[in-house]
Amino acid sequence: MRRIFGYISLAFIFFILISVWTLKIDNSLGYSEFVSGGALFFIISFLFLFNIRKRLPFLPLWPAHKWFLLHTIMGFLALLLFWLHAGSLWPKGLYVQILASLFYLTTLSGIVGLIMEKIYPNLLTRIGLECIYERIPHDIAKIRKKSEKLILECTEKTGSDTLAKHYLETLGWFFQRPRFFINNIFGGRDSHNWIIQQCAILERFLNEAEREYMKQIFTLAEIKIKIDHHYSLQTMLKNWLLIHIPLAAAAMVMAVWHLIVIQVYFN
What we know:
There is one protein chain. By secondary structure, this protein is mainly alpha-helical. It folds into 2 domains: 2-128 and 239-266, no CATH class; 133-237, no CATH class. Helices cover 82% and strands 0% of the residues. Helix 1 (2-25) runs parallel beside helix 3 (64-86) and helix 2 (32-55) runs antiparallel to helix 10. It is elongated.
């Protein structure tokens, strides 16, 4: 069913583009800009329906995944129509350039969101740990308390403060809050490599009893690494709309104003 829906959508896009392109070539009636602009405005308005659909999940409308697919297809169609309507990748005139900038930024943020929606769920599954986003600060605090308890216990039982000093100088920074945010959103392993490096540096200065405590600290750090990855990826998934929707709203406002100006001066 999804494949049939995709074929129908592609056929619709092809029909719209051919129609507008034909008018561009044969502009004897002088309607090409009005047709392409009208089609573009209609599609931009339709794209806003996806946000309304997300806010009204109780209505008996299409499933969300079909709306998402249609929203994606229409978004790319809008980009193609914008190029046809403007006649160039970067139009002339300050006002139109502002509109083009908003349109491109909205499209770019939409593409970023599409990539994240396709890649991040698989990455979260591979982490091997389930995390509720709202509980992440609490989970990190629990791990930090356990690590600090181990440090105190190690100092008391071994009579050595080597591990404690290293924790205060380096490892404590890692356990305070989520770290390596930028690297995590690209699926990197900087946090894992950093922990291994810190443990390798410290191990040569520890006795056998202290090394047992360090192994427990390392185990907690591995859990913290997984939580940090969840925090980074879920933050991106939850907050990218805070960029995409305002940009889309600004582009819509500019498009409406553009339509009003065209109606006033050309009618």
